[in-house]
Amino acid sequence: MTMALNVLSRSCPSNSVLELIAGKWNMLVVYALRDGTLRYSQLHTAIEGISQKMLTQTLRDLERDGLVARRVYPVVPPHTEYCLTPLGRSLQEVVVQMGCWAEQHMMEVLSARADYDGQGRTMPG
């Protein structure tokens, strides 16, 4: 018997997977690892604005979910590398496409925001 999946349902496991993919830092780590293995410090430098604490937690979450593999070298100081697993690489194409879309449509989104804000409306909240 197969389970009926519905990503719109809060109780569906696919909903939690979508949350994983949609997380800002998760997407940026996958994007940063798109070309191969990076050390922790390289990831921290590449992803502007991410705190060390948030990067550590994001990497742990991605490792737990099978998207990122971690390799620790027993040297002083510690040397840790991260790369995408086969599952992570399967997500890479989607994340790269989303990054390209964001870059290509950035001005349109900023213009729409300015128009919206210029009408005296604010974000609901």
- The portion of residues forming beta strands comes to 5-15%
Give the overall silhouette: globular
Query: What oligomeric arrangement do these chains adopt?
Result: single chain
Q: Which structural class do you get from the secondary structure elements?
A: mainly alpha
Lateral strand order in the biggest sheet? 1-3-2
pLDDT averaged over residues: 89
Low-confidence stretches: none
Fourth-tier CATH superfamily name: Winged helix-like DNA-binding domain superfamily/Winged helix DNA-binding domain
At the first level of CATH, what is the class?
Mainly Alpha
What letter string, H or E per element, gives the SSE order? HHEHHEEH
Distance between the termini: 42 Å
Radius of gyration: 18 Å
Specify the CATH architecture.
Orthogonal Bundle
**Number of beta-strand segments:** 3
Could you give a short account of the major beta sheet?
3 strands, antiparallel
Number of structurally distinct domains: 1
Binned, the helix content reads: 55-70%
Determine the CATH topology.
Arc Repressor Mutant, subunit A
Q: Number of helix segments? A: 5
Walk me through this protein's architecture.
- There is one protein chain.
- The chain has one domain: Arc Repressor Mutant, subunit A (Orthogonal Bundle).
- It is 58% helix and 11% strand.
- It has five helices and three strands; from the N terminus they run ααβααββα.
- Strands 1-3-2 form a three-stranded antiparallel sheet.
- Strand 2 and strand 3 form a beta hairpin.
- Helix 2 packs across helix 5.
- The radius of gyration is 18 Å and the shape is globular.
- It starts with 12 loop residues before the first helix and ends in a 7-residue tail after the last helix.
- It holds the Pfam family HxlR.
